[in-house]
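>> received
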Amino acid sequence: MSDWLGLSGRRAVVTGAGSGIGQGSALALARVGVQVVAIDRDDAALATTLDMARAADLPIDGVACDVTDSAALSRSAADLAAVDILVNAAGIGRAGSLLDLDLEDWEAVLAVNLTGYLRTAREFAPAMVERGGGSLIHIASISARHPQPGSGAYSASKSAVAMMSQQLAYELGPSGVRSNSVSPGLVRTPMTESYYQADGVAQRRDAAVPIGRVARADDIADVVVFLASDRARYVTGADITVDGGFSTRLMGTVPRPGFDG
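>> returned
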């Protein structure tokens, strides 16, 4: 597969790489020969990813950095060689209805999930532009199109990420740099694990997905790897839904007498 993808020897930065989709993406890229720099603000989580990489003899280095800290991000970027691939996977959530949500929580989510993605793109994309090629991949969500009640700024942030990715694709396309987003559905990650600890939730969530199970991080990471490769050379400005068919269920929730099959 590594030969087919042609990624061996390329360099990538993956944010939010301490856990979940970011961690899965960092490991998946390294498995096909990409030299990965994993970025996360959680030292302990980042150490876990690096331990996993060492155990599997994978080429991953780590940098502890908060994507909301422009100065720290710039310093980290200055210490790194130019990269070919950027995966924006850092993300947080804060619960609350829009009318009741504390604005500090709204701004905190946008600072990581949206502005943090722009910050990293501004740090790493210019070198791609100079070299005439590169791939930006941003983790959005199906909640970008299907509002998730009670989740504060999360849906709005992911919708904005998908549009930001398209705008980057338009602006950077002439330079050979591609930008795409990936929209996962239900994924079992450390950020969502508490949901699955409630009685019956894991079984009900699995049953809600046509494929029959909630995604793992590597299900999303495999799509990230494809988008990073030249096999996706004509794919830019796209948002790839990776949800096991979950978002196809909408019309099935509407009663239609006589069409129950």
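>> Residues 207 and 213 are 7 Å apart (CA to CA).
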